[in-house]
Structures are given as C-alpha cells and as structure tokens.
Amino acid sequence: MSLFPQAPNAVVMIRPHHFSPNEQTAVDNSFQSSSKFDHAEVSRLAYEQVTRAAETLRSHGINVHIFEDESTETPDSVFPNNWFSTHLGGQIAIYPMYAPNRRKERRSDVIEFLKAHYRVQDVIDYSGLEYDNLFLEGTGAMVLDHIERVAYAARSNRTDSHVLERFCSHFNFEPMVFDAQDKHGKAVYHTNVLMCIGSDFVIAGFEMMTDTKRRDEIIRRFEFAGKKVIHLTEAQIGAFCGNALELHAGSKRLLALSSTAFAALSQSQKALLEQSVTLVPLDVSAIELAGGSVRCMLAGIHLSKR
C-alpha cells in the first residue's frame, strides 16, 4: 500500500503542438470560452504552458512523463486523464469518450510506456462501449477517493451510471452518483471541475449539487472520514478551484492547481489547505479556454515502479 494512496508521485502529461478549444465539446461544456481568440497564439501559449508546468512540478519532486502530440485532429489531447487511469495493484482502465475526435487521443505508446516502467497486471478497456453510446470519461467523469474507495460522479452526457457501476465492480469502488448544475440549470460536464479530494481534505462546489439530501449525505461521508470540508462558490468553480490534484514528493504533499484558481481562493481557504499541502499554482490560462484546467492535464500514476 502506498504511503499516500490519494496522492501520486508521478503523472503523464501530453504536450500539444496544435492545441485549440474543441468545437465538438463546446455543446455541453459551459466552462469553455466562447470569445474569439487568435488560434496560433493560443496554440503556442498552450505548448509553453505545458512545458513550464512540467518543469515546475519536476522542481517540486514530481516525476513527469511527457508525451508529444503533433496531430491536428486531437485539440483536447492535453487532457489525458479522461481516456485512461491507473490503479494500485497494477491496473489500467481505458475509457469511452463522448466527443468523436476525443477518441483519437487514446495512445498505445503511452500504455506500452507504463507497462515498461511500472508493474501493470491488467488493462481493462471500456472504449468499445462508445458503439452503444455509453460514456465514462475517466477521472474527469469520476473523482475517486482512493482511501475510502468511493467514486463520486455527477450525471452528465459523459458519465453513464451503468458504465460507472461496471468500473466500480472491477476496481472495488462504491459509486456515489449525484446531479450538479450551474445557475443556468446546465449539468456540470465533468465531476472533476466540481470537486477535488485530497488525503485529508475535500474542496467542492457543494451548493451546485441539486439534491439537498444527497449533498448532505456526501458532506457527512467526508466529515466521517475525517476530511476537512472546504466549500467553493459557483464563481470559484468557474475559476477552476475544484480542478486541482494532490501529489506527493517524499513525505511532503502538494496541491497542483492553476494560477486562475489560486487567485480565486480566499485567504482563509488557502490557509486551511496549507495545513495539509503546499499550493503549487501553474499558469495554464490558454488551456483553460478549452474548459479544463490543471487536474484534467495530469493523469496520475498509481502504479508501482518496476
């Protein structure tokens, strides 16, 4: 058992050479920017921001595996946490993706690299469920509590509860499904923009959960597990405060989050978090135009090294 089952020490990142906000995902992702921008400039900035983010994480002791994406057909490839996840005990899951062009992000070279450098017993591939219009976009669709073994999931086009149940029975999680909406009544497209679970804290936009009974049950579960519960406003969720990932380097724990999110947290929220983790803000402002932030960019490696 890892010392920090919730907080990996290694991540996979994809560096895009032709990044742009994805037209195919704009329909149900209200976090995407609809304003006009210079595509060439945004693409250049995204490349630089991934490079700098990886350097910063490495300087904090995180093992970053970077893969290049030179394709022009995969505008969202910078978000690999949606198409695969890794799990203690040597398992990898591969997921069915909602947008057709996101299905092209799945890469055998990434999986082969992991098999070569880490102990991988089993790869479970759910991607064929796309043919039945069933989707579960990895750790975007689910926020996993690796300690309590609960998979939190907000219902959306990208989170099918039947696929979630299948995942949970394979990987020994309890599914905890809920509804979450923004102030316009639109479903939150990915659970990981709403909620971040750390080893001993959770930050989430609980007010966006529409069923008060389910919301109270979820908060009680976190409190019962001894986690500090930090409430985010809808405006803070819009600034990607929920889209963060706890990592560890040696005995210290970090919280990787975006500069946008860092600026939107209150001083008291930062002070509460800093009792547990060192906050590591990363400038990913160009990438946030696509409706995702730091958590989406990091596919955590919960595998043992070879």
UniProtKB/TrEMBL annotation:
<keyword id="KW-0808">Transferase</keyword>
<dbReference type="InterPro" id="IPR014541">
    <property type="entry name" value="Amdntrnsf_FN0238"/>
</dbReference>
<dbReference type="Pfam" id="PF19420">
    <property type="entry name" value="DDAH_eukar"/>
</dbReference>
<protein>
    <submittedName>
        <fullName>Amidinotransferase</fullName>
    </submittedName>
</protein>
<dbReference type="GO" id="GO:0016740">
    <property type="term" value="F:transferase activity"/>
</dbReference>
